Amino acid sequence: MTFAAERNRLDQRGLTVLGGWAVSNLLGSGIAASQTEGSAHYFHQMNLGWGAINLALAEAGYLGARRAAHAPTPNRADNVRAQLRTENIYLFNAGLDVAYLATGVYLLEKGRNPTAPGSSDQWRGYGHSLLLQGGFLLLFDGFQFATHHRHGTQALYPLLSHVSIGPGAVALVLPLGATRRHPIPSLPLQ
């Protein structure tokens, strides 16, 4: 399996998990929203919104990864760019997830303030939902980043560690003998 094919497989696997999470939110909270009151109702109402958005993102990402799997095999430079883009997307998303968690804490605090405008049940329900969704997404994005980074470290970055750049020169350094620091990766890069 090529490096790009393995990256696409990792993306598809992760987006299947995200899609499963989204469907479980849509089903579970879809049923519970009509059977609950107070902050629990708003919790499930917010989860329905998150489920719809996460399902749309998972489906779009999954289809994009499938299309990429059928694209021509990228060269090494394209692999490096795609790998870094993938890792950076998951890191950026993890930052957003922290913002969701912070917003959830803010909404919970706002729900405790009796003089805050709006319904305290609504603020608490939305706050709990943001904590759940942000927590799941932080774990998901962290795991996806770690998985992709490990894939890059094992199969792509060891080759790049043999490139030496200096003033006016670029060199490929290949160790002699059996004392290599990094084994040559088993996944073909093209």
Overall geometry comes to elongated
Which segments are poorly predicted (pLDDT under 50) over 5 or more consecutive residues?
none
Number of strands: 2
Largest beta sheet: strand ordering: 1-2
- Count of alpha and pi helical runs: 5
Approximately what portion of the residues adopt beta-strand conformation? under 5%
From the N-terminal CA to the C-terminal CA, the straight-line distance is: 10 Å
| Backbone structural class | mainly alpha
Q: How does the major sheet shape up? A: 2 strands, antiparallel
Mean pLDDT level: 87
Instruction: Tell me the radius of gyration.
Output: 22 Å
Order of helices and strands: HHHHHEE
Question: Total domains, how many?
Answer: 1
Helical content class: over 70%
Short description:
It contains five helices and two strands. The chain has helices at residues 3-33, 38-69, 76-112, 120-155, 157-160; strands spanning 163-166, 169-172.
Q: Tags for this entry?
A:
DUF6992; 2 strands; 5 helices; 190 residues; mainly alpha; two-stranded antiparallel sheet
Folded structure, characterized:
- This protein is mainly alpha-helical and 190 residues long.
- It has one domain.
- It has a two-stranded antiparallel ribbon.
- Strand 1 and strand 2 form a beta hairpin.
- Helix 1 runs antiparallel to helix 2 and helix 3 runs antiparallel to helix 4.
- The termini are close together.
- The mean pLDDT is 87.
Topology at a glance:
Blueprint: H1 3-33, H2 38-69, H3 76-112, H4 120-155, H5 157-160, E1 163-166, E2 169-172
Antiparallel strand pairs: 1-2
Helix pairs in contact: 1-2, 1-4, 2-4, 3-4
